[in-house]
Design brief:
alpha/beta, TIM Barrel, Elongation Factor Tu (Ef-tu), domain 3, 4 domains, eight-stranded parallel barrel, 14 helices
């Protein structure tokens, strides 16, 4: 059977374990160095503990080593990978090709980070030939393009993003943050300039849009396309968010776990199963709209089906809950508002709306009154607001749902069968888990017939079934003794605990990490010449490309420790401003203001916009005028 994997982010150990308990088949986490998220670093000890917990359920742990690495850091990177290998991580996710030139690369699975810009079938074929077991595809690919890659390179595992924040620029190819702040996205330090406000101006200097979030994208939500992505060859579904908190990871993981299970449960999908084992339960109904989101887009999975960007806000919008039906005002300032909504609203909820200036404005709920007759909810905000009738109201913080998710203490559990049988000298407890691992516990006890036999089997069963403090739950119990024997409850409890301890240890010992010996090749790279976009910042990476038949190599901009050259593209994006404003050069008829060159402007700089309409990309570069 083909295994499907839900891959969840882990900012720390606690969140990593919670992701496993919520249905993740694997988690990815950063170590203390080179992890592409400087605010999500973890100790080797915490990673080791996460590995032990994940492997109990046949779940995996991948560690990000996905930044570019300077020459003086390569030794440190090599030592880190050695430590990760020793504690049992299943794979490392890397960006820098220089790592493949390290003297002693251990037999650990290699995943190619999306920061490598895995966009073409030729690039993915190359990665397969030089030792990568998995490729994390560029987010910009459509389902048809993913299918083409899988058909061209069927031997490599395909991992694709399925949910979370989107980078506006191509991953690994964006230099806007470095140009502005010297904080490089390729070093895990992005200052997120795509979430800032800009003015849009034309060649005549006219301001077409002022102070708008022209580069900010909505959040990715591909939950409706899981079957199509599986058909295209995707086997690992990645949730973005190594900076996200516990409630977010639990809810989003549980939601996508349910969606994948629904796919597998269909009668014509019997050839698929989950990579990990165990039963996942929650006391809440997962809902992606109730967690942090900027509104959703399916991005480019089916081509441009919806607006990718949100010009008015880069903040969380949340879930739409209804429109303003009435309000009480004094000098146009609402003292309370009434909302036509079926959603229960609670004190402390965070609500928001787009005001008359088109900006997102938020407030907290101080008091709620429900009019059941009219179906309206009267809300008293924590501040005075100016609002209009029929204004759409969104909830970006749901206090009750947050409590339900955070306080949900369900743990993932593995199903076991237990048999109590008779031996010549006493009794034997046998346990077998859902993977077939079996252990025994001998009970040396005198055989005495029970005096009370009414409901005998159920009384024994209730003692055997006390598994609440373990990772196991009982699926079947067999009493295979010739008589109804008497057992002290303390005796059953003792040996049941011993049995579970043995099974737990057996599961730890049974996990078999895939180890792959790395062997260097000289398979030719798809390009003969590499510019700054190859992100070469160390000599080992240069040696790697030379060995793979590259003839000309430019260093990456971070290696120059200077401002980027004027002729480089700072950001290449599918989030086209012209398309969002219905001024597409192919689809729309441009107005006179847009029928000319366009520029972005912040407080200090002006950037030139160029449009590659054939490939549907927008480029942002330094304006040299």
């Amino acid at each position: 059977m083909e295994k499907l994997e839900l891959l969840s982010p882990a900012k720390n150990l606690e969140i990593g374990k919670a992701a496993i308990d919520s249905g993740a088949d694997a988690v990815y986490i950063g170590a203390n160095l080179f992890g592409a998220r400087t605010n999500a670093a973890n100790s080797i000890e915490d990673i080791a503990e996460l590995v032990l917990y994940a492997h109990l359920f046949n779940a995996k742990v991948y560690v990000t080593v996905n930044t570019i690495v300077y020459d003086n850091e390569l030794k440190e990177a090599e030592e880190l990978i050695g430590e990760l290998y020793k504690v049992g991580v299943d794979a490392i996710i890397i960006q820098d090709f220089g790592i493949l030139e390290l003297a002693s690369l251990l037999p650990i699975a290699l995943h190619s980070s999306t920061q490598m810009h895995n966009y073409t079938k030729e690039k993915v074929k190359f990665l397969s030939q030089v030792g990568f077991q998995r490729v994390v595809l560029a987010r910009e690919l459509s389902i048809d393009e993913i299918a083409e890659i899988h058909k061209f390179v069927p031997e490599i595992e395909i991992e694709a993003f399925v949910h979370g924040a989107l980078c506006n620029g191509l991953s690994g190819q964006c230099y806007l943050s470095y140009e502005i702040t010297k904080r490089s996205g390729n070093r895990g330090e992005c200052s997120q300039p795509c979430r800032s406000r800009y003015d849009l101006i034309n060649a005549q200097g006219k301001v077409l849009l002022k102070d708008k979030h022209l580069l900010s994208t909505k959040d990715f939500n591909a939950s409706s396309y899981i079957p199509q992505m599986i058909d295209a060859g995707v086997r690992s579904f990645k949730i973005e968010g190594r900076l996200k908190d516990l409630d977010y990871v639990k809810n989003i993981t549980a939601y996508y776990s349910d969606e994948i299970n629904k796919f597998i449960a269909q009668s014509n999908n019997r050839n698929y199963c989950r990579q990990s084992i165990g039963k996942v339960e929650t006391s809440y109904l997962p809902d992606v709209e109730r967690s942090f989101n900027r509104g959703f887009t399916s991005f480019n999975l089916q081509g441009k089906k919806d607006k990718i960007g949100n010009l008015d806000s880069a903040k969380a919008i949340g879930k739409y809950i209804g429109k303003v039906a009435d309000f009480n005002s004094s000098e146009r300032v609402a003292q309370y508002i009434e909302i036509d909504s079926k959603e229960p609203i609670s004190n402390g909820d965070g609500l928001c709306f787009f005001n008359q200036k088109g900006q997102l404005e938020g407030f907290l709920v101080n008091k709620v009154e429900r009019n059941h007759t009219q179906g309206l909810t009267k809300i008293y905000p924590n501040k005075k607001i100016e609002i209009r009738l029929l204004t759409k109201i969104y909830r970006n913080f749901d206090t009750q749902f947050f409590k339900q998710v955070v306080q949900d203490l369900h743990k993932r559990r593995i199903g076991i069968e237990i048999i109590l049988s008779e031996t010549p000298k006493g009794f034997l407890l046998t346990a077998k888990d859902e993977t077939g691992i079996e252990v025994e516990e001998i009970i040396n006890a005198k055989k005495e017939l029970a005096l009370k036999t009414q409901d005998y089997y159920n009384n024994i069963l209730s003692q055997i079934n006390k598994l609440g403090q373990t990772i196991f739950y009982l699926t079947k119990f067999q009493y295979n003794c010739s008589q109804n024997y008497f057992f002290f409850a303390s005796l059953i409890n003792k040996h049941r605990r011993n049995l579970c301890d043995k099974l737990l240890q057996a599961r730890k010992e049974a996990y078999n990490r895939q180890e792959i010996k790395f062997e260097k090749t000289d398979y030719p790279y798809p390009q003969k010449e590499l510019d700054y976009r190859a992100n070469v910042v160390n000599e080992r990476a240069k040696q790697f490309f030379l060995r793979h038949k590259v003839e000309k190599i430019d260093y990456g901009i971070e290696a120059l420790k200077a401002n980027p050259k004027e002729d480089i593209v700072l950001m290449r994006s599918k989030n086209c401003i012209r398309y969002n404003l219905k001024q597409c050069l192919l689809r729309d008829e441009q107005t006179s203001d847009f029928n000319q060159e366009l520029f972005l402007r912040d407080n200090q700089r002006t950037y030139k916009l160029q449009f590659d309409c054939k490939n549907c990309f927008m480029d942002l570069s330094i304006n040299d005028d």
